Amino acid sequence: MKYFPIFWAMGGRTVLVSGGGSMAVAKLRLLMKTEASVIVFATRAGKDIQVWADEGRLRLIARTLRASDLKEAALIYAANDAAEDNERAAALAQAEGTPVNIVDNLEASDFITPAIVDRAPVTIAIGTEGAAPVLARAIKADIEERLPTNLGLLARAGKVFRPLAKRLISGRKHREFWAEYYSETGPRTVETEGVEALPVALDALLTRHVNAEAAPGRVDLVGAGPGDPDLLTLKARKALDKADVVIHDQLVAPEILELARREATIIEAGKQGYGASISQEKINALMIAHARSGAHIVRLKSGDPAVFGRLDEEIEALAAAGIDWQIIPGITAASAAIAQIGQSFTRRGRNASIRFITGHDMKGFAEHDWRTLSRTGEVAAIYMGKRGARFLQGRLLMNNASPDTPITIVENASRPQARIRVTTLRGLPGSVADLTGPAIILLGISSRHAALAPRHEVQMDRAL
Ligand code: SAH
């Protein structure tokens, strides 16, 4: 983040604008919405500015800016049509240490003005660090459409009511009260009875929430999917939106954690693969303790929680403690991997079943039905298979698998840094040796690499 968005108090402050042309007009339209006093310096000012000056909405001084003008200024906009005038104004501001924005000159500016969605006191600022103004405008249009026009009004009424809402003691009750006000009670009241009815409606809503019994804590065991936030289910998103506590595995992508409610406590538990860096008992104890305090917990696991996720142990602990739980499934890494290479797990005439197997378990390399896996046409997705690649190869060859059995490895499936390696059973150990990210080994399947090559890094094993 090259620019940090903040909201700067404008009451009682002065903002200077150097320039009287169209550039200045565009900034003035925004500045006049604030509580700041606005002074425009321009030897020639456009008609709009003249009118605003006559209406007393700004002061117009018909000369260029001088150093002595800057004494009381909080901010200055260099918004002249000519670049040399902006340079002069900016030099004065910089000499005085006043933050300056030079219109159309991002590099030399101290601050930039975002695109703004105005539902004051709700204000949304959209910035792209100058990279994509068109995108900023498109996002603005999208948000404008989505937010009710009377949102500002609801927020102002809500603000007045805030001290009274302190009667709700727990953070959770607070949230539930305000969520119901903004999503239902508020809009409905304004629509049917008008703004004047809001205080009474808020009062009734508060009484109902104060008297409501606190909901008991509970745990959602949620699949975070393979990494791409778009592959999260809607149900998972909703759970993240409401959670008080998020306990996640290390493999869960940071972009997904970003979707958690901002006030949520985020706890990282466990490292890649099977061995947990904080013990399973500790994770269970953590969930139970938070749930007993009435929290809504999201236990976030990569992929699908029911695939190599030690789900049963957690469920059994929760059930024994009498805590409510539910499973929210996710897209497992194997599904993301097979999609990444444009293939299907099953195919008529080739295989009528698939296996999800693990390369190793807590005891070491995992044993499987190698005889079946070694047959031509068998398909398996191997999780946590990197370390055991040589063992896997040995077991399969021992059971008469062909060394030419196709193998595709997908590292970081669904993530921007995804890599695909196409090899055979012969080349398997060599192909995984340098991989550092999570990887799925697909046995018996080759990539439709030719079609995918332009989009993904596909590496063919030279031994092929
Ligand atoms: N519950 C998870 C699996 C957890 S075990 C799921 O359903 O996907 C961890 C293993 O999953 C990793 O060692 C790796 O083999 C695999 N994995 C997880 N995310 C992956 C990804 N984005 N790309 C490839 N493999 C992944």
Strand-helix topology:
Blueprint: E1 14-18, H1 22-31, E2 37-41, H2 47-54, E3 59-61, E4 73-78, H3 83-96, E5 100-102, E6 115-119, E7 122-126, H4 133-146, H5 151-161, H6 171-193, H7 198-211, E8 218-223, H8 234-242, E9 245-248, H9 254-257, E10 265-268, H10 280-292, E11 296-301, H11 311-320, E12 324-328, H12 333-340, E13 354-358, E14 360-361, E15 364-365, H13 370-373, E16 379-383, H14 389-398, E17 406-411, E18 419-424, H15 428-432, E19 439-443, H16 449-452, E20 457-460
Parallel strand pairs: 1-2, 1-4, 2-3, 4-5, 8-11, 8-12, 9-10, 9-11, 13-16, 18-20
Antiparallel strand pairs: 6-7, 14-15, 16-19, 17-18, 17-19
Helix pairs in contact: 5-6, 6-7, 10-11
The protein binds S-adenosyl-L-homocysteine.
Please sum up the structure shown.
It is built from 16 helices and 20 strands. It has 464 residues and is of the alpha/beta class. The protein folds into 4 domains: 100 residues, NAD(P)-binding Rossmann-like Domain (Rossmann fold); 61 residues; 114 residues, Cobalt-precorrin-4 Transmethylase, domain 1 (3-Layer(aba) Sandwich); 127 residues, 2-Layer Sandwich (Methyltransferase, Cobalt-precorrin-4 Transmethylase, Domain 2).
